[in-house]
Write a structure and sequence with these properties.
heterodimer; A: about 250 residues; mainly alpha; 9 helices
Chain lengths: ~250, ~55
């Protein structure tokens, strides 16, 4: 297990493996998203309270879940990079940030669009879930700004990893905000028994798994680019690029 | 048409799905573009070095 882990963490090995793995995540991901979107939009029954507006959850829930997952990946990779000084871990953290920001932005927008017909407002500043999710977006922006402000990659890796670890407090707040405080945002329903019929739940799970696979594929591709950039002066990159087959 | 109208919530539902599509496609396109750029920059630099040698 450890041998495999160390082998995977080697940049040339990861670069090769990720090229093979990425389409294997992308294709099933797209199939599941296609299935989930179709059944969620046209097959799942209408919600008795929210009407057809509830169908927004099929993009809102996966994007909100990925906004948190991307942050956890970023912070965990940052911690691994700080503790074990693994180069690949910092590359993973750097690559996860723009994706996390994109999904957080999507979660905020879709939540806001859903809120307009359901709550009668696009945004509610007093709501802890909405505000903490917005802070999460700012944390992503701060993380990316900090990285780009420091020219030395090693220093940028360390500083941004510390910021990502501090920001975990906000992730905990995002997750538990609906339980700790009174919130316009509904509590957890997806994994609670008896809150959703199977016709509604199955497309949602398809979307959740599909979005996760798509995210995995996109993350692998971004880490690949990050690895290539960081290793641009190494012998393996030189050999790969100057070889007759290339290695794009 | 009834399916598209979404019981009067069509504008909200479809705009969310469209936004998700745009964000995912844009994000994917940006990452492919960056990879190509990084790869080409390294290739140009290495070929220039090789020519000099």
């Amino acid at each position: 297990m450890w041998k495999w882990f160390h082998q995977l963490a080697s940049p040339p090995h990861f670069y090769r493996i990720s090229a093979i793995l990425s389409p294997w995540l992308l294709v099933p991901g797209l199939i599941l998203i296609g299935y989930g979107a179709y059944t969620g939009l046209f097959v799942a029954p209408m919600d008795y309270q929210q009407g057809d507006a509830f169908r927004i959850i099929y993009v809102h829930v996966p994007s909100a879940y990925l906004s948190i997952m991307a942050y956890m990946i970023m912070a965990t990779a940052g911690a691994i990079g700080l503790i074990w000084r693994m180069k690949l871990a910092h590359a993973v953290a750097a690559a996860a940030a723009p994706l996390g920001a994109a999904f957080t932005f999507l979660a905020l927008c879709t939540g806001s669009i859903w809120g307009r017909p359901m709550w009668g407002t696009w945004w509610e500043w007093g709501d802890p879930r909405l505000t903490s999710e917005l802070i999460l977006l700012f944390l992503y922006f701060g993380y990316m700004a900090l990285r780009s402000a420091i020219d030395d990659t090693t220093k940028a890796d360390k500083a941004s990893a510390v910021l990502a670890l501090v920001g975990i407090v906000n992730v905990v707040i995002v997750h538990f905000s609906v339980e700790w405080w009174s919130s316009l945002h509904q509590g957890q329903t997806v994994f609670k028994k008896g809150t959703m019929s199977a016709d509604m739940r199955i497309p949602l799970f398809a979307m959740l798994i599909g979005f996760t696979l798509l995210f995995g594929s996109m993350l692998l591709r971004r880490v690949r680019t990050e690895v290539l950039y960081r290793e641009r002066r190494t012998r393996w990159v030189k050999e790969m690029i100057l070889s007759p087959e290339g290695g794009a | 048409m009834d399916g598209l109208a979404m019981g009067g919530y069509g504008a909200y539902v479809w705009s969310c799905f469209a936004l998700a599509f745009v964000i995912v496609v844009f994000s994917d396109w940006r990452s492919r573009l960056r990879h190509k750029r990084v790869y080409r920059d390294i290739e140009v630099r290495l070929k220039a070095l090789e020519d000099r040698e």
